[in-house]
Amino acid sequence: MKVLVTGGAGFIGSNFILYWLKKYTRDEIINLDKLTYAGNLENLKTIENSKNYQFVKGDIVNKKLVDKVMKGVDMVVHFAAESHVDRSILDPAPFVKTNVEGTYVLLEAALKNKIKRFHHVSTDEVFGALPLHTEEKFNPQTAYNPHSPYSASKAGSDHLVRAYHTTYDLPITISNCSNNYGPYQFPEKLIPLAVTNLLEGKKVPVYGDGLYVRDWLYVEDHVRAIDLILHKGKVGKTYLVGGLTDDIPNRQVVEEILKIMGKGENFIEYVKDRPGHDRRYSIDWSEIKKELGWQPKHSFKEGLKKTIEWYIKNKDWWQRVKSGSYKAYYKKQYK
Ligand code: NAD
Ligand code: DAU
């Protein structure tokens, strides 16, 4: 099987490639990645010389290139995206370009090249926000109601993927997943930002009242869900994937990190809130459990401990990532 992975140098994409090549040793992977600030080939060092792995540096918006790399491919797993909500608020343009137009270019090439499966990796943020202190969860019937330029651009891409199935019969699947965390996550997202700031002796910025809720999932569990969808999922279907957390507010997430790292609450700094900040996400993943037998393996406590250990062991990785343009972004975002 020849698999084209887009955005494979990013957080989830690189975890996916490492997992896939270990499990399916006869498969071939082509990784098409533009290497934006979020793409990092260091994540794939252990497999970079494998015979069945090829890296192509390029933009998914480039029609000619996309068409070329898709020749002879069986399956596309599409991770490439601008993925950070705060950056989408600072500048939505690359989000529309990559997430909407890039997905369109991939879909056109997938049709032309008769791809057997196009899997689109999406987010629970397309559903908007849930109220606090309720039992409500996002489910496969929940209507789309995105609030940030990021989630709106992902919603646009989801609709395009579905339309290519309904209109042109392209064999697609979609997964809408909650907040991932784990190794190789860029330290602009809450958990790696908190852990690396603390390792540098800095405070952790918490937005607003810190009572926002996310549904945390260890990245390996997400990758396993995609594997199952690719092998057993129904063509044309959307699967919702979520974690095991019971409405843990951000404040508590940071407190757990402080506890594991032996730091006091004086390391929390409440800062200006994110505009349009979604209050709560929570996923009902009972359908993928029933249909494909998937469920998360990592408790939040276990996943968090593993993640912190990884960042402690891989100081060189995140120190390199946190230099250069990261510093300018941090200053702009948090001042
Ligand atoms: P990331 O930002 O870590 O990585 C994105 C990757 O895409 C990078 O390697 C980047 O270089 C590449 N890329 C960006 N624009 C590109 C372009 N125009 N052409 C080619 N490559 C390009 O993102 P992530 O957190 O790994 O997320 C991967 C996917 O999963 C995204 O589609 C995101 O919307 C989705 N998702 C993420 C989460 C999460 O919690 N991180 C949860 C649910 C869904
Ligand atoms: O829900 C899935 C989504 O999760 C993915 O689609 C996105 O790609 C991914 O970035 C993530 O989006 P969030 O905005 O939820 O993740 P982030 O880590 O940026 O923020 C998590 C929560 O923590 C959110 O309520 C905002 C808050 N936060 C974040 C940062 C960076 C803070 O309080 N302080 C911070 O410095």
Structural class based on helices, strands and sheet pairing: alpha/beta
CATH architectural grouping: 3-Layer(aba) Sandwich
Shape by Cα distribution: globular
Question: What kind of sheet is the major sheet?
Answer: 7 strands, parallel
> Percent range for helical residues?
40-55%
- Total strands: 13
What is the ordering of alpha helices and beta strands?
EHEEHEHHEHEEHEEEHEEHEHHHH
The named CATH superfamily: NAD(P)-binding Rossmann-like Domain
Rg is: 19 Å
Mean pLDDT across the residues is: 98
CATH class: Alpha Beta
Tell me what you see in this structure.
By secondary structure, the protein is of the alpha/beta class. It is built from twelve helices and 13 strands. A seven-stranded parallel sheet has the order 3-2-1-4-5-6-11, with helices on both faces. It has a two-stranded parallel ribbon with strand order 7-10. Helix 1 links the parallel strand 1 (2-6) and strand 2 (28-33). 2'deoxy-thymidine-5'-diphospho-alpha-D-glucose (DAU) binds at residues 83-85, 123-125, 178-179, 189-190, 193, 205-207, 212, 214, 250, 274, 281.
